[in-house]
Every structure is written in structure tokens, then in C-alpha cells.
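User: Predict structure, ligand magnesium ion.
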Amino acid sequence: MQYFVQQLVNGLTLGSIYGMIAIGYTMVYGIIGMINFAHGDIFMLGGFAALIVFLVLTSLFAGVPVVLALLVMMIVAMLTAALWNWTIEKVAYRPLRGSFRLAPLITAIGMSIALSNFIQVTQGPRNKPIPPLVSSVYDVFGISISLKQIIIIAVTAILLTIFWYIVNKTPLGRAQRATEQDRKMAALLGIDVDRTISVTFIMGAALAAVAGTMYLMYYGVVVFTDGFIPGVKAFTAAVLGGIGSLPGAVLGGLLIGLIESLWSAYFSIDYKDVATFSILAIVLIFKPSGILGRPEVEKV
Amino acid sequence: MSGPLLQVKSVETYYGNIRALGGVDVEVNSGEIVCLIGANGAGKSTLMMTICGSPQARAGSVIFEGQDITRMPTHEIARLRIAQSPEGRRIFPRMTVFENLQMGASLDNLKYFDEDVEKIFTLFPRLKERQMQRGGTLSGGEQQMLSIGRALMARPKLLLLDEPSLGLAPLIVKGIFEAIKKLNKEQGLTVFLVEQNAFGALKLSDRGYVMVNGQVTMSGSGKELLANPEVRSAYLEGGRH
Ligand SMILES: Nc1ncnc2c1ncn2[C@@H]1O[C@H](COP(=O)(O)OP(=O)(O)OP(=O)(O)O)[C@@H](O)[C@H]1O
Ligand SMILES: [Mg+2]
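Assistant: Predicted complex:
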């Protein structure tokens, strides 16, 4: 039982990270109907930005408080990733809007390769380690919960609450949802659709960058290929939860995290990815729109 | 400001290579109610949307308050206070009635929302009952009311209505026409509307235009058009509603 709960905690931690990345996939899909394949690399870029900030900070001010360091890492990572995502939307995706469906998809794959190669060239191909930032571990009824895990889960919960609030309760969120549901009508009501789409890319990138920072802190390394596997898993999470649905992305992320850690704990760690994708396949056979996704037909 | 509020000058609009409007001239003066009638596919909705820059006219010009808006992006045209209840109503299906109305008031950042929404609810009490229902689940008539209400929430200088009576019960249509008249009389709201219900629309309007195959073929005061034999046979056959 303790072992099981332990795995739940681990899975929840991992799932939080996937969930934060998945939101970027699902929001962009919702608003312009494309899969931003470069999103995983935005996450990886966030990790690198955080690492560089950490190295700069510690070399400039020895003994900087960890909380402060983490905060600065997160903010700079968010800004860097947001700037990048904003730029690729503007220069690479926007001109293709309205052209045939595969064009932006292919471009997104190109952007993904470009970004990971850029990091490989400038940062080197090897794992980049970071010294353990937080190492406390607490024992709660025989379950060990690390401070890292608490931070990740708490940061995720706070950010998702803010995010939920923005999307559901603010004029910006309303404009985003309106643009998603009927772009032409939104424009007729005075909504600057291009700007709204830009903001969506910025928000998705910022969350991915936080996920990247958390990932770096959790595993202690980052490498240029990190955009791929976690990226694909987060994308899977978005599809599993129902692409286009925000709660779906979070739910999908948590589920994938849980499946992965429970499978590794009880079965074979080598097959954890196979298990994840099998479950995705099964869900999609029985519910093609994902767990919380809405079916395609709807009375409008 | 002298001159008409809206001037459409020799406007041509295309869908790909198909010409939907072939040199249309229309004027709407401040404080007027003007209607546009014509058969299905004549280009009425295209004209309404061209005024809002979606699609943009390929030739000719659209002038609003003396300013050329032909090449202006749609959202900037909306900010000049041209509001439209478009063809097909275009209610946001996964937003509540209330949120749809909030979207209508986006321009002023909801500054006058509380005050204005009460007016809309007085006009359409049905919407008040349904505030928290999702737009996509409203009946056709309720969606029509919401679409008009949403356009009014923008505090428009020019209100464009594309078939406001479509799908509504005669009593509600009467109510809507009366409401339009009232807004026009009391607040000087300028209205340009497309109608299939030519009789009711011409009676309501100061002036009217008849469109055939992407061109305006006739225009005149509401009374003149109502009395015109061609108009009578083409659009008023079957008599009064
Ligand atoms: N998006 C489009 N793509 C191609 N052709 C279009 C498009 N929209 C309209 N058309 C064509 O342009 C012409 C004018 O259409 P429009 O919708 O303006 O007519 P309408 O007068 O509003 O008709 P109705 O009374 O049926 O609403 C029609 O022949 C129509 O088929
Ligand atoms: Mg029409």
C-alpha cells in the first residue's frame, strides 16, 4: 500500500509536468486547429534557459537563495520560450494560415528540428547537469515525498488556477474562446484575432517553460533531445484528455504520469512507453474524441 | 459631418474568381433605416460582410463617416461602431448567453455592460431566462434574438442586420421591427437591414434598395418601392404577412 501511494506521488509529479506542456498543445490546437510540433522543443528551450540563468546567477552571486534562484530561472525561461514561440507563430505559421492543412504541420516539424539543432550546436550534444537545488525529503507515514515534488505539484496547481481564471473569467480569455469558436464573428465584434492567437502561443510557451524548469530541477539534467519524448508524451496527454479541452490536457497529463510510474513500478520499466501509448490507442478506439473532448457534431 | 454615414461606391467583391458583387452603390444617412431586398443568392449578405471588410472589396470603396474603410481589418471596422448581426447568427456555441452578450460589449471593455444588458433583457425577456444556457443549445429564434442583442451591446452607430426576422414567429418579428423603430426614433440609431420579409421591411424603412445578381437595380423610399409593380410581383407576391 505504501509502495502504491509512493508511486502515486511520483506519477502525480511527472503528470503535472506533462499536463503543463499539454496545455500549450491543446490551446494552440483549439484556436487555430494545428498541432504545434515545435512545442516540445519550447519546453526543452525553457529547461536550457533555466540552466543558463542558474549558472550565471551562481557565478555572479555565490550563495543566492534557492527560492530566488528558482523564481528568476522560471521567469527568464518563460520570457525566452514565449519570445521564441511568438516569433515562430508570426514568421512561420501565420503566413500559412488558410493554406492547405498540412503546410503548417510540416512547418512546425521544421521549426522543431531547427530549434533542437540550434540548441545542439550552441549548447553541445551532451547531457547538461545542474547541481541539486533542493534535496530535502520528508517522510509522511512511510512515504517519502521530496521537496522537489512538493514544489512541482504546488507550482502546477498555482499556475493552472491562474490559467483557468484567465481563460474563463477575463476579457482576454473570452476573446480566446470566441476566436476558437468563430474567428470571423470574433473579428466582427472588434477582437484582434491575430493578437489573440499570438497571446495564446505566448501563454502556452510560458507554461511549457515552467515545466522545463521543473523538469530540470527534478531530474538534474537537460539535453537537446528532451523536447522529443516528453513532448510526444504531453501531446499524447492532450489527445488522451481530448484535444482542445483544457481540463482534458491536465487530466491526460496526470493519467500519463500515473500510468508511467505505476507501470514502471509493477511491471517493466522498459515497456513504460509502450504501456502509455497502448492505453492511448485503447481510449481512442472507444472514445475517439478523448476523455473530455467534445464529439465533432454539434448543433450550432 | 456632412454627407452620408455610409457610402458604398462601385463595390465589387469576389469569392475566388466568382464575382458576387458587380459594382454596388448604396448610401445610408445618419438616422435612417434602410433596407436591402433581393432574391436568394443576389449578394445581400456579401454586401453586409464587405462593409465589415470580410471579404474585402476588390474594387470600389466603402466610406464610413468620411473615412475610407475598404482595406481596414475587420476588427478595426468594428471599433468604428459598425455592428452586425450576420447571416446564420453566428452565436458562440460554447459560451453562455451572458458571455455572448459580454462579447458584444468587448469594445468598451464592459464599461456600460450592466446598464445595456438590462435593456436587452427588456427587449428580449427570453434571453434573461436563458442567460446561463450555452448559445449552441438555444432554439433558432432565441439565437436570432441573441445575435441582435449582441450587436446592440456594441453601442453601434450603424447596425447591420442580415435577415433579423429569419426563423422567428410573426409576433416576435413584429416585436423586433418595433424595437428597431424605437431605437431609431429615440436614440437615432442608423440601421441597414437585409430582409426576405420585404413587406414588413419596406414599411419599416425610410428607403430601400433592390438587388439582383450582385447589382442594385432599384432604389427609392419604402413607400415608393412598396407601390412599385415590379417589386410587388417579384418580392411581395403572396401578399402581406
Ligand atoms: N464563401 C463563399 N464562397 C463562394 N461563393 C460564395 C460564398 N458566399 C457566397 N457565395 C456566392 O455569392 C453569391 C451571393 O451570396 P450571398 O450570400 O451574398 O447572397 P444573399 O443575397 O445573401 O442570399 P440569401 O437571401 O440566400 O441569403 C451566391 O451566388 C453565393 O453562392
Ligand atoms: Mg444572405
